[in-house]
Amino acid sequence: MLLIKNAKILSDNQQTIQRDILIQDGTIKEIGDNLSDVQADVFDAQGHFLTPGLVDVHVHFREPGFEYKETIQTGSLAAARGGFTTVMAMPNLNPVPDDQAKLAAQIARNQENSVIHVEQIGAISKDLTDHTINDIQGMTEAGAIAFSNDGKGVQTADTMLQAMTAAAKAKRPLIAHLEDDTLLHGGVMNDGEVSQQLGLPGITGLAESSQLARDLVIAKVTGVHYHVAHISTKESVALVRMAKSQGVHVTAEVSPHHLLLSDDAIQKDDAYFKMNPPLRAQEDREALIAGLIDGTIDMIATDHAPHGTEEKQKSFAVAPFGITGIETSFQLLYTHLVKSGLLSLGTLIDRMLIAPVKAFHLDAPTQIAVGQRADLALFDLTHLTTIAVDDFLSKGKNTPFIGWQVYGETQATWVSGQQVYQR
Ligand SMILES: NC(=O)N[C@@H](CC(=O)O)C(=O)O
Ligand SMILES: [Zn+2]
Ligand SMILES: [Zn+2]
After folding, report:
1. CA dihedral angle for residue 278, residue 281, residue 283, residue 284, rounded to 10 degrees
2. What residues form DSSP beta bridges with 345?
3. Position in ligand 1 atom list of the atom nearest CA 305
4. Could you tell me how far CA 316 lies from the centroid of its own chain?
């Protein structure tokens, strides 16, 4: 038994109230004032903010195939340090989980090596590239939570139509990484003034939004739950807003880095700022924040994309796309969206927990209540700390947020009442 004393939790009317929480057999048994239990281990939360563990629908844990970047173990420990207790893992692995047996093996591997809950996303098509649609029904039966070719765009309307039809039939969401290869022209960062100044080839926002427009009309016809990964442009936000108003079953996620940075933050050739989609213009960033506030963008997902330090220290032109993010997301967003007055704490928790659980029908608690599984995270909202790479549990040290000053440091994380992270 575990007794968490003096925790601040969100009340029904979005205020924080101080409570003690008693946990037995992995479940919340009692919530009250001045609880005591002689048999329980006591954890003093010291007035910090306690929430159900956060949920991230977009992470890359790299195992199997790229264990030098991350493993399921290091990725899940990093997630726990970020206050996350449930994540959805992308299938750009080697081998790619693209059939029923491989998907089942990947689920077993996740379960064996992770300290948190990891749901597995299956690949849409063979090797994430050619046009053979995988066995969506078979992988659904093996436990795939959704389907995506993340890392690659689905290039043809025909492939997308087949994939959406199969996913709709299997009642599984289809997650789109939007990227039209014919519009890339070798680009490595956002196409604009900054790319011109740095002499780096640009990626037009049309590579994302034109494919999104195509997908939304196909999604409407098929009735699939269509989810937009890492939305990055103002045109894409407008398209999702319009599609929602027309009853398309569409949801969207935005990453912390697209909310907090734009391409003008890139002042030199530094590949820690290189990710896909790229950091866009200031007006795109503003549209993303507005979309997050009005609910056009349903949720925040980190797109935690760890890479080796050596490969990320290469030039922008050749380094791999992607930044690590799961350990820093809550504190960055709390500091720069909540403390700054743009969002309430309750809305941030909605976008990082409640909305993802609802959209993907995940088995994860969304409130601190008696009978709920004790997946919990404790954050210190009052002390300022500095993001330091030496503190990372992820193998990936590649983030442009190193050195940023933030509130909201994780103090502890529990999964089913078992502590999986302690500051
Ligand atoms: N986001 C990235 O820049 N990279 C991701 C792939 C992806 O999410 O598209 C990766 O796997 O490294
Ligand atoms: Zn992607
Ligand atoms: Zn990704």
Report:
1. -10
2. none
3. 12
4. 24
2-49+371-422 and 54-359: identical CATH topology: no
pLDDT of 131 higher than 90: no
Q: Can you spell out the DSSP letters for 319-369?
A: SPS----TTTHHHHHIIIIITTTSS-HHHHHIIIIIHHHHHTT-S---S--
The ipTM assigned to this model is: 0.99
Output the CA 4–ligand 1 centroid distance in Å.
38
Reported confidence tier of residue 317, pLDDT bands at 50, 70, 90: very high
Q: CA nearest 375: which of 383, 364, 385, 386?
A: 364
Domain boundaries, the chain: 2-49+371-422, 54-359
Q: Half-sphere exposure (CA, 13 Å, Cβ side) for 161?
A: 7
Protein fold of 54-359 = TIM Barrel (3.20.20)
Task: Report the C-alpha gap between 312 and 305 in whole angstroms.
Answer: 11
* Å from CA of 416 to ligand 1 middle: 30
As a whole number, mean pLDDT of residues 98-109 equals 98
| pLDDT tens by residue, 338-390 | 999 999 999 999 999 999 999 999 999 999 999 999 999 999 999 999 999 99
Mean predicted lDDT score pLDDT of the chain: 98
On whether the 2-49+371-422 domain is CATH 2.30.40.10, my answer is: yes
